[in-house]
Specification:
Chains A, B: GO terms for molecular function: metal ion binding; prenyltransferase activity. The structure is a homodimer of 330-residue chains. Chain A has 14 helices and two strands. Chain A is mainly alpha-helical.
Chain lengths: 330, 330
């Protein structure tokens, strides 16, 4: 089944790309097309919208009815990347200067705002019954809002001395949980309507999968490394408020705590390799890596348990998607 | 009738403020309430939402049905102020530091994004029939999108050597025209439904009123002055691409043109009073102020002409609103 998901992503990806060019024409002389397409051309595998269309189809719906909603999710994703790059002061994305670096902060903020307008527009023009369209708009807006709430926690997590695992989980549920579930929820609503028991369970699924995959992602940084050359600890240099950081901060003595926060709040380029190693040593002292691994595995187990509870006949699609996402995380 | 509009703004303003506190609770510990309410507490007369409710009532509708939409316009307005302050690098607003100055750029962008989510939410929860709700969402989204398009032109107008009156008008129609009409259009839709002839005319009204009032506003800067102490020419210091600038740039010889652009693109604090006077002299040489006055008066005449064409019985409300807005401009 894994192969099917890969294959579907390829097929649906093309449809998504075609509609994207309709909704955001690439060569308009309006100071918006250019920065937006500079960003969009850096890539993206269209996994989020494809998951929406796969869900819709597997639950017996017509994926064409969900296409506009699926694209709206992809546009939202890119809007967040544009604004996040400014907020995180990231200068490069996929080997290209970020939009704010190339076109200035003003154009980058405004281009993100424009993407969002086009995302709502995309749902508003979709040819589906009014009630269903309003449901999709509610799902989309809730996802947008909760992700922004998560981002607020993320922005302010770095220097916080009272950061905890509970705060990390709240942040990740908001910032990645709704987002992960959104496509599946929308696909299910197009296929089945707004069936309360089902929709609630899919949202709950996102709130388990989001943290599970995020903790796995945090671990990758300390085991095989992220980015080119498999450098270990780039999250530490970035000052990312990871699960390991949250967990260790709760357990560390005052000296270690002060050191952790000190290194965390340093500018990326000022953090030395010795400091990264120092943080790793503190993590190891408290068994943070083993704990994180166990915690993520437990969340993944809960994910599969909740899938079993979804009251629809063909729920295999959710397991396939979870498997696919889990595989991408290793 | 003028007094009635003032009175209605006061009464409706209270209703708007009550709902605002429900939609965006002031004291939540989420890193969003604080920056947003720092901004909201700096004031605002709720004129935009009140105009929506006045239009709805005068056309025979129930203003309560338009209340959520009206508040969404007010929230949108404040979202734009938050993002615009970053984009324009404005450090003060109504005697208070702007949000990005007080809470950082990251929190200010994100707080703006949150306001937008709440604006859509506000319309989505309003208790009106689905079809009508979708119409309001379309009106709102169109306004948001077109205002962002106008902002894109504005951001990039300053240093442009080929800036023209036509480009100025396009910018202002987009950035202020939809925005001005939006409340009236929404109020009319709630009262009358989406009657094509009427709605089209109200949008067209906005596209005349927007430029008319903006040109008047540009003129005020050069005649009585803006802000405290009536200092003349603060738009010139800010490098604002005004009607007078656009008009003069089209007529000026190459030397004057180079001087104009040079002064325009200078940082505000680096622009001297002599340079402001120099620009004023170039404007005067080309009769820009008289031309702008005439141009704005002509647009206002067209505004009243188009109001006559609106095919509804009680169209006096539009004239009252236009009068009220015109009065605020002198």
């Amino acid at each position: 089944m894994q192969a099917d998901i890969e294959e579907s992503i390829k097929i649906y990806g093309k449809k998504i790309d075609e509609l994207l060019k309709e909704i955001i024409p690439p060569d308009r002389d309006d100071y918006l097309s250019e920065p937006i397409w500079h960003h969009l051309r850096t890539g993206g595998k269209r996994i989020r919208p494809a998951i929406c269309l796969i869900t819709c189809k597997e639950l017996g719906g017509n994926p064409d009815d969900a296409l506009h909603f699926a694209l709206a999710i992809e546009i939202l994703h890119n809007m967040f990347l544009l604004h996040d790059d400014i907020e995180d002061e990231d200068t490069m994305r996929r080997d290209q200067p970020t939009v704010w670096v190339k076109y200035g902060v003003a154009n980058a903020i405004n281009a993100g705002d424009y993407l969002l307008a086009r995302a709502y527009h995309c749902i508003l023009i979709s040819q589906i019954p009014s009630e269903r369209k309003l449901q999709l708009l509610e799902i989309f807006n809730l996802t947008y809002e909760k992700t922004v709430e998560g981002q607020a926690l993320d922005i302010n997590a770095r220097g916080a001395t009272d950061y905890t695992v509970e705060k990390y989980l709240e942040l990740v549920r908001l910032k990645t949980g709704y987002y992960l579930a959104c496509g599946m929820v929308g696909g299910a609503v197009v296929a089945l309507g707004n069936i309360e028991g089902t929709i609630d369970k899919i949202w709950a699924l996102g709130k388990l999968m989001g943290p599970a995959f995020q903790i796995k992602d945090d671990l990758i940084d300390l085991t095989v490394g992220k980015g080119r050359g498999g450098v270990i600890g780039s999250d530490i240099k970035e000052g990312k408020a990871s699960f390991l950081y949250a967990y260790t901060l709760e357990l560390a003595n005052n000296d270690d705590k002060a050191s952790l926060i000190g290194i965390m709040t340093k500018q990326r380029e000022e953090t030395t390799d010795d400091e990264v190693q120092y943080v790793l040593n503190i993590y190891n002292k408290h068994g943070a890596i083993e704990h994180a691994q166990k915690y993520a595995d437990d969340l993944i187990k809960q994910t599969y348990d909740i899938i079993d509870e979804i009251p629809t006949d063909n729920k295999a699609v959710f397991r396939d998607i979870a498997n696919f996402m889990a595989q991408r995380m290793t």
